[in-house]
Amino acid sequence: MLVNIGFGNVISSRRVIAVVSPGSLPIKKMREEAKGRGKLIDATEGRKTRSIIITDSDHVVLSALQVETIAQRVSNPIGGAAESGNAEKEG
C-alpha cells in the first residue's frame, strides 16, 4: 500500500523500516551519508524536516510531517493514502 508522506508524495508501506526524528547526531550523520551515496529523497517541499523515513532499499526520505503522523499512516495505510488533503495543513 502507498502511504502519503506529505504534499502529494507517497511511499510504499512495505518498504519502510523506520520513521525517526531528525534531531539526533547519528540520524544527521545517516542523512549526510545517504546524500553522498545518492540515496537521499527530499519530500519536504522546502519545509522543515520533521521526520526521516528509512527504507529497506537503504533510501533515506525526508518528510515535513511529524513522526507520529507517518507512523500512524504506515500502520494504517488505507487511511493514510486517503488523507492526502491533511498533509499540506500539517507542514
Short account of what is shown:
The chain is built from 4 helices and 6 strands.
Question: Can you walk me through this structure?
Answer:
With 91 residues, this protein is of the alpha+beta class. It has one domain. The protein is built from 4 helices and 6 strands, in the order βββαβββααα. It has a 4-stranded mixed β-sheet with strand order 3-5-6-4. A hairpin with a 2-residue loop joins β1 (2-6) and β2. The longest helix has 13 residues, at 25-37. The chain is globular, with a radius of gyration of 12 Å. The two termini are 23 Å apart.
Inertia-based shape: globular
Proportion of helical residues:
25-40%
Major sheet characteristics: 4 strands, mixed
Write the element-wise H/E pattern from the N-terminal end onward: EEEHEEEHHH
Q: Which structural class do you get from the secondary structure elements?
A: alpha+beta
**Span between N and C termini?**
23 Å
Percent of residues in beta strands: 25-35%
Radius of gyration: 12 Å
Mean pLDDT: 89
Enumerate how many helices there are, as a single number.
4
Give the low-pLDDT segments: 82-91
Query: How many separate domains?
Result: 1
Descriptive labels:
91 residues, alpha+beta, two-stranded antiparallel ribbon, disordered C terminus
